[in-house]
Amino acid sequence: MAAPNQLSRSLGLRLVIVMVIGNIIGSGVYKKVAPMADVLHSSGWVLICWILGGIISLFGALCNAEVAGLLANTGGEYVYYQKIYNKFFAFIFGWSLFSVIQTAAISALAYVFAQSVDSIVHLPPLLEQWSDISILGIFEPFRDFNVKAVAILLIVILTWINSRGVKAGAGVSTAILLMVFAGISLIIIFGLTSSHANLPQAFQMKTVDGSSVSFSAVFTAMLAAFWGYQGWASVGYVGGEIKEANKNIPKGIAIGVFIIIALYLLVNITYLALMPVQDIEFINQSVNKIAAVEAVRVFWGTNGVLFISVLIALTTLGCTNATILTSCRIYYAMAKEGMFFSKVARLNKKQAPSNSMIFQGVWASLLVLSGTFDQLTDMIIFAVFIYYGATTLGVFILRKKMPDAHRPYKVWGYPVVPAIVILFSAALVINTVYSRPREAAIGMALMLTGVFLYYYFIMKKKKDHSSVSV
Question: Per-residue pLDDT averaged across 120-131, rounded?
Fold first, then answer.
């Protein structure tokens, strides 16, 4: 039994794998094949980019697993960075999660869920007379407010469910994930065995326009794939609630990412076998169409459209739930050290950090109002790869700082694999600044507000310590 105000270690390897997969499978598995096809003009190259994106993600996951196995505790990278770098960098990371990375992920996923609900039941319009209101010419809080209201409602409901305890939240994720796997498996099986499937078409390396595939095109396509793979590191945030965390976190991350790579490859082969690349490119140019929906329409017609819309809603529901469950633990860890708002350090009767969830839910709801799905995901990818690179660099630093420490897992391919991840992370961040300057600037501005808050919390800790001493 957990001590008062201490998290309970109740999660085994199975639930760790569930949380890794649940944090990854979101909208990318259904949507990202279209922008990738539009850039590459070749089905075979689309599959190669999914594989390359998966390999880089797996390399990053394996590097993270070595660090997690050595330093496993609630708070994930926030705890790791204190050992690798210093408390300032750790705080900036934690604040980045709250201000951009995890809360924007919750917002983006909830937004796609709400769009799926709208496609099924056609939500009535809300506050249309305010839809043209703009803040700084960037944010339009009341545009598509019917969809945004459902997204916010989802965040509120899932926050309440997860406040009932980690096993309750993980149980919901398990149930949803089983249904999602069943749904995607049906698409793969019935899609590939239907009379409409043309399997050799899925592996065609030639481009439809006869052009050559450039390095820039491959890199751009991989950026689209990375949203599909995003989220595997989140399991480290609940390290204090995992049994034998030093063993189960590395195993869970590696197994979970391997399963995702295989699943993504199979389902994208299905899409590309059912539709020629030209048709998928056209889907990308039509804002309101989703590649998975159109692929299922080919062999199941109108009933298939309803099925896939429900499946997308269910998938994004599961990923939103998993992200809410894991993310709030890091703010709890920060607050326990006096480096976040003090109320966030309190647990409820179910030993869950409910106050942390409420803070997270309020900010995530405001981010829903701030922009569109694409704005949110661009900010996330920019921010998250700064820290993927920093964690991977930590593999080199910790091997120097703690050469004799017991490591339940050592990253395969050291030092080449970590070096590849670091170089790729740097290239992606630079590319985002160049190609998406507005989103990069907003994300960086939100992260840098943490500099002022760091010194505020440091001063507050000193003041509180002086008061206790007197």
Answer: 77
